[in-house]
Structure formats: structure tokens, C-alpha cells
Amino acid sequence: MIRLDKYLSDSGLFSRREASRLIRAGAVTVDGSPCRDPARKIDEGAASVTANGQPVGYARVRWFMLHKPADTVSTTEESPKSVMNLFPPELRRIGLFPCGRLDLDTTGLLLFTNDGPAAHDLLSPKKHCEKRYRFTCPPLSDEQIRRLEGGIALSDFTAKPCRVALDDPLADREHGTITVTEGKYHQIKRMFEAVGSEILALSRVEFAGIPLDPALAPGEWRELTPEEIALLHQNHTANGEE
């Protein structure tokens, strides 16, 4: 059961204040009858609600993917560079936040949800949730790759073992992918620096088994499909605590 004003605001169509105003004005019906009490409790799964004569659906848990462009910040705080500015107001109002962060100049897949517990589980180091990135760097030697994959000791922690795959070990040792199960601040950049290399470009292409949709241009987003959401929950459940 949920308050009527929260039901309306969770739909993403109205702010909580706008919802309360509509309800008190008699513009909202519940199961065909007008309701003027914003605090009335309704069954979000069974009630039929309209506002201004239009049906209002309820979707408490939402998941989205965004192709994060460079020079944007993974934050919900007010900022001209915030990734939240790429979403319309009706989605920002339902409490979306990024599931993890990407550095200012790192591009690629960023997931958003309003499901705090699920996001916390996915980001927990104990869940071993895999994240795959494409990188560009100076040519990597076999020894540098071996050190990266073995787990690099940094100043404040030791990175867990990872997987590095070059696009073409014989002809192109400057481009490839790296798959990690952590997401600490500047982690991949620091790992490459620790082996005497540097990241020249970095883009996340997969998170928890969900690849970045190639149809999304930088700055574009879409809602996850039911199949992707199922895969997301399947992967973070399968990768639970050891």
C-alpha cells in the first residue's frame, strides 16, 4: 500500500507538490471515484488511477542505460555537467541515480535506477560484478599484461586480478579490453600507471553482463528491457558472497 500522492509522483508525471495539488482539486480518481486526500493509501498493483482524465500507471522500480559522453559528471548533485541533465524532468523526479560512477573523461555504459538496495548489491565488492572497458594506451608488453592480470598493489589497496585482451596481440597492442570486478576511484588508470603505462582513452562497454547498446549515441539513453533486467538480477545473485 502506498500514499496516493506518492503513487502519482513515482509515476514520473508529477512532482509530489503537483500531485497533492491535483488531488485536492478533485482532478484525481481512484477506481472511478474522485479522491481529495493525498494521504489515502492505495494498492499500487491493483488500483486504477487517473489524473486529469488520463490513466496513470505505477512503476516504482525503473532501470535505464545511458551512453555517457565525455566531460560529464556521474552525480545527482546540481551541476551543469551532471549526467542527470541528460534525462527529462519527469524521470529525474522519480529518484533516479547512477549505479556506480565513471570518471569525467571516461565514456560508455552507465546504469541508472531508483532501486537503492539492488544498486547497492551490484556495487558491493563481495558480489564480484564484472565491468568491461575498452582502452587505448601505449603498446602493452606481455609482462605488463601479466602484472595487470595478477592484481596490482596500489598505494591504498591491492586491485583484484582482472582480464586483459588485446585487439590484435601481433599487430595492435595499443587497443583492447579490460574486465574488472571493482570500481574504485581512477582504478584502471592507476593500474596502468603502476605498470609503467597510461590510459589514453577509456570507455565502459559492459556492466554485469549487459552490453552498451550500439544504437545509443553519446548522451542518449533508453530503458532496460525485461530481459536485461532479469539478466542483471541473475548475475548479481549468481555472483553473491563466497
Overall description:
The chain is an alpha+beta fold. It has 3 domains: 2-55, RNA-binding S4 domain (Structural Genomics Hypothetical 15.5 Kd Protein In mrcA-pckA Intergenic Region, Chain A, Roll), CATH 3.10.290; 63-125 and 210-238, Alpha-Beta Plaits, CATH 3.30.70; 130-207, Alpha-L RNA-binding motif (Alpha-Beta Plaits, 2-Layer Sandwich), CATH 3.30.70. 24% of the residues lie in helices and 26% in strands. The chain has helices at residues 4-10, 16-24, 89-92, 116-123, 142-150, 187-194, 226-238, and strands at 2-3, 28-30, 33-34, 41-42, 49-51, 54-55, 63-68, 97-98, 107-113, 131-136, 163-168, 172-180, 201-207, 210-211, 221-223. The strands form 3 sheets. Strands 7, 8, 9, 10, 11, 12, 13, 14 and 15 form a 9-stranded mixed β-sheet that branches. Strands 3-2-5-6 form a 4-stranded antiparallel β-sheet. Strand 5 (49-51) and strand 6 form a beta hairpin. Helix 1 (4-10) packs across helix 2 (16-24).
